[in-house]
Design goal:
Helix content: under 10%
CATH superfamily: Protein of unknown function DUF192
Number of helices: 2
Strand order of the largest sheet: 5-4-6-3-2-1-7
Number of strands: 7
């Protein structure tokens, strides 16, 4: 599936990549059960756009990867559906999952420093029983252009 975008709003260059061609993030619960989420990996210059401008998301998410642990904030400007964001430390442990309300301009971030964030459909983590303390591993190498 390719996402549907608004003709009046910008979207990231990754929006039109078919879902089955996207890289994988593998989430592992404490009981060992694994779940795969296909994720877009946008250029850092597109982080401000994120998943905004889309009319639907489908079964995909987006990665925000940082060189060093960070406290970068997130908001939902021009994002037309609710999301969940898993904040992950350098070792792959999920520190916190925040629910984000569509169109909200409120800024949010976890209480702890994190290395990367994975945005997903609002109920994706909850439906799979994935939470704080579980693992999120990127099943691909971070591209050189993102490592900067």
């Amino acid at each position: 599936m390719v996402v549907t975008a608004s003709p009046d709003e910008p979207v990231t260059s990754t929006a039109y990549i078919p879902t089955d061609q996207l890289p994988r993030a593998v989430m592992t619960r404490a009981d060992g059960d694994e779940f795969v989420l296909r994720i877009e990996v946008p250029e850092r210059s597109e982080y401000v756009t994120g998943l905004s401008g889309r009319l639907e998301l489908g079964a995909r998410g987006m990665l925000f990867w940082y060189h060093e642990p960070t406290t970068q904030i997130f908001w939902m400007r021009n994002t037309h559906f609710d999301l969940a964001i898993a904040f992950v430390d350098e070792g792959g442990t999920i520190l916190e999952i925040l629910l984000m309300e569509a169109e909200s301009l409120n800024t949010r971030r976890p209480d702890e420093l994190y290395r990367y964030a994975i945005e997903a459909p609002v109920d994706w983590f909850e439906e799979r029983g994935i939470g704080t303390g579980d693992r999120a591993v990127l099943d691909f190498e971070i591209p050189d252009w993102l490592r900067g």
